[in-house]
Design brief:
The protein contains 7 helices and 9 strands. The protein has 191 residues and is an alpha/beta fold. The protein has a single domain, classed as Spore Coat Polysaccharide Biosynthesis Protein SpsA, Chain A, CATH 3.90.550.10. A hairpin with a 2-residue loop joins strand 2 and strand 3. Helix 3 runs antiparallel to helix 5. It is globular and about 40 Å long.
């Protein structure tokens, strides 16, 4: 089975407030007998020796799934860009693959497709599904860390907007691709 040509750090974002889940920590919610984070981790683990989880609570429960844990620099769950910035600060490889903890249907083929887009131009890559950008499925060159930090300092809190300030390579997927489903409501967990 093919593996990525370039070493890559992988960041699983599990640091959110979980508002649509009644404030519960989404990554630790059970689906098919395991926490959501376990499903995602099982797919990404063979692809990296630098698996980072961004979590702002329950670090002890996330530790077994990661090589490194990070938390947002600011309190009160400021959003995915904060988690990405924390991940970029500790990433041990030149590229950071960013995924949400609540996407348990991702598969190796999708991840290898993303990783195959690593480029010499240092352009980020983001999935676009049915014409809509999906920043929770992106590949970021660590060389952009200072630019993303500057966007944060200038008040930008959107990962998508911060990435789109750069030439982004789109990786197109159809609207009905279930591998990109985010389990971010109680109804999704019941499916």
């Amino acid at each position: 089975m093919p593996t990525p040509a370039s070493p890559c750090s992988i960041l699983l974002l599990a640091g959110g407030r979980g508002q649509r889940m009644g404030g519960q920590d989404k990554g630790l919610l059970q689906w098919n007998g395991k926490p959501l984070i376990a499903h995602v981790q099982a797919v990404v683990r063979p692809l990296t020796d630098d698996l980072i989880i961004s979590c702002n609570r329950n670090q002890g429960q996330y530790q077994p799934y990661a090589d490194q844990l990070v938390s947002d620099a600011e309190a009160d769950f400021p959003g995915p860009l904060a988690g990405v910035l924390a991940g970029l600060k500790v990433a041990r490889h030149p590229w950071l693959l960013v995924l949400a903890c609540d996407a348990p249907m991702i598969d190796r083929a999708l991840l290898l497709d993303l990783l195959s887009q690593i480029n010499d131009q240092q352009h980020p890559v983001m999935v676009r599904q049915g014409g809509y950008w999906q920043p929770m499925f992106s590949l970021i060159p660590c060389a952009l860390r200072d630019d993303l930090e500057l966007a944060w300092q200038q008040g930008d809190r959107s990962l998508q907007r911060a990435l789109l300030k750069h030439p982004v390579q789109a990786l197109e997927y159809p609207e009905d691709d279930q591998r990109l489903s985010n389990f971010n409501t109680p109804a999704y967990l019941q499916r």
